[in-house]
Amino acid sequence: MAGRVLMVSGSKGGVGKSIVSMALTHYLLKQEEELLLIEADTANPDVGKAYGKSVKTLYMNLDEKEGWMDLTNHLSEHPEQTAVINTPARSGEGVKLYGTLLSESLRELDRELVTLWIINSQRDSLQLLREYLDGMQGGTTHVLRNLYHGPERKFELYNSSKIRETIETSGKTLNFPDVADRISDQLHSDRLTIEAVIENAPLGNRAEVNRWVKECATLFEQVTP
Ligand SMILES: Nc1ncnc2c1ncn2[C@@H]1O[C@H](COP(=O)(O)OP(=O)(O)O)[C@@H](O)[C@H]1O
Ligand SMILES: [Mg+2]
To answer: pLDDT tens, 14-26?
Structure first.
């Protein structure tokens, strides 16, 4: 079976794209899938820095048409790889111009495109999602409310929106769990993998990471069947 292409996006900075990409990479490694990480955040490649040594990682600039072409070429040459793509903030323009280059090629290759769209509770998260769906025109998009930004009810704008209905015609709305700051700091500042955090952590920290990893697994099972 051809590997899936999992795009982690949300356009805005600080919404949680990188931490979701790390959690997803950790989850897929456990599934022993042949994994490829595409680090497309050229300004802040934090996922590549944490996972570059343990997962095959390619750096690509998806602001440029060349980047989208390189990505599509690589995916067609390696059908067995499951790809996780960590996207930068403000990736909307690239998607608008070149998104269909990828989505149509994947359709031709019979490879599934799954987008995890991370939101906070603000309105522009939704506007950018609309633009993404219009630009990409393919695959399945799931929305992840990142609970780091508040409990589910704080996402009222999304919860009662039209775009939620659009998403749920083929995708899902799910909650991405919050993890203690001292753990996320180790991922972001110390450039550690989740595996390394678990290995080196004192018992209390380890219990917290394990809880979070388990909750993430329950979430990812629903979007990467
Ligand atoms: N679910 C979460 N649990 C703990 N910290 C989080 C969570 N989501 C985001 N953060 C923190 O918020 C900040 C921004 O997250 P990040 O993943 O870098 O966002 P992005 O890649 O979208 O810019 C980081 O310091 C990160 O650790
Ligand atoms: Mg990021």
So the answer is: 999 999 999 999 9
% of the chain with per-residue pLDDT over 90 = 88
Q: Looking at residue 155, which CATH number applies to its domain?
A: 3.40.50.300
Q: Report whether 175 contacts 200 (CB < 8 A).
A: no
Distance 149 CA to ligand 1 centre (A): 9
Q: Give residue 209 CA to ligand 2 midpoint distance, Å.
A: 20
Atom of ligand 1 nearest to the CA of 21: 17
Instruction: Count the domains in the chain.
Output: 1
pLDDT bin (cut points 50, 70, 90) of residue 101 is very high
In terms of residue numbers, what domain contains 128? 5-223
Distance 88 CA to ligand 1 centre (A): 13
Q: Kindly state if the Cβ of 47 falls inside 6 Å of ligand 1.
A: no
Which residue, among 210, 2, 215, has the nearest Cα to 106 in the 3D structure?
2
Tell me the whole-structure pTM to 2 decimals. Answer: 0.97
Helix (H, G, I), strand (E, B) or coil at 116: strand
Nearest ligand by distance to the CA of 20: 1
